[in-house]
Amino acid sequence: MIEVQVLTPDDWGLWRRLRRVALGESAGAFGATLAQWSGAGDTEERWRARLSEVPVNLVLRWDGVEAGMVSSYPCDDGAVELISMWVAPFARGHGVGDAAVNFIVARAHPCDVVLSVKSGNAPAIGLYRRHGFLDAGPSPDDPTERLMRYQPVRAQATT
Ligand SMILES: CC(C)(COP(=O)(O)OP(=O)(O)OC[C@H]1O[C@@H](n2cnc3c(N)ncnc32)[C@H](O)[C@@H]1OP(=O)(O)O)[C@@H](O)C(=O)NCCC(=O)NCCS
User: How confident is the model at residue 154 (pLDDT cuts 50, 70, 90)?
Assistant: First the structure.
């Protein structure tokens, strides 16, 4: 069974623990690095600020064990950006990523959901495509990343 916990800034210790594992385990998948969140960058104040500035932060459990995480925040253009997606290796291929995307897409409704993904990250691109995300071109911020966008079906205007 997959459970979703919505975090508050007081859960910074849980987020810190999982995020540091994610940054170490999947170093190539993220823009951030473990080094940036270590040493002087690894303070309670900074982790709390991260959970305050990004409004939606989830930890997912698979059969009671912490197994994944994801966040989202509103963009300037009205869309919602999905970030920090990670599923622990032991839980991959069991629906944890699906549950994370479903929650973020439902929470964002009726807004579009956008994300950046490394162009060679086939497992992640496969997951997002299965949920209806389409390639939206190269990332303006990073030539190694592609943008993907999910557009919910919007009700047709009736006259
Ligand atoms: C990408 C990721 C979140 C997918 O999580 P998940 O819960 O395994 O998602 P899915 O079960 O939908 O699997 C996604 C793809 O990985 C494949 N997969 C299944 N088991 C896997 C495993 N043990 N290891 C790697 N990939 C696996 C699936 O076949 C699927 O590919 P498909 O859609 O072509 O069939 C997870 O692999 C991960 O955390 N990767 C490292 C961090 C990362 O890339 N984050 C995304 C940043 S944009």
Answer: low
pTM passes above 0.85? yes
CA 87 – ligand 1 centroid, Å: 7
124 lines ligand 1 (CB under 6 A): yes
What is the distance between the alpha carbons of residues 53 and 73, in angstroms, rounded to a whole number?
8
Contact (CB, 8 A) for 101 and 80 = no
Query: Domains in the chain, start-ordered, CATH in brackets?
Result: 2-150 (3.40.630.30)
102 lines ligand 1 (CB under 6 A): no
From 127, 144, 146, the mutation candidate for ligand 1 (largest count of ligand atoms within 8 A of CB) is 127
Summarize pLDDT for 74-92 with one digit per residue, the tens: 998 899 999 999 999 999 9
Task: Please state at what angle helix 96-108 crosses helix 122-130, rounded to 10 degrees.
Answer: 50
Tokens 């290796």 identify what position?
89
Query: What's the confidence (pLDDT) of residue 153?
Result: 80
d(CA 116, CA 17): 23
What is the whole-number distance in angstroms between the Cα of residue 75 and the centre of ligand 1?
25
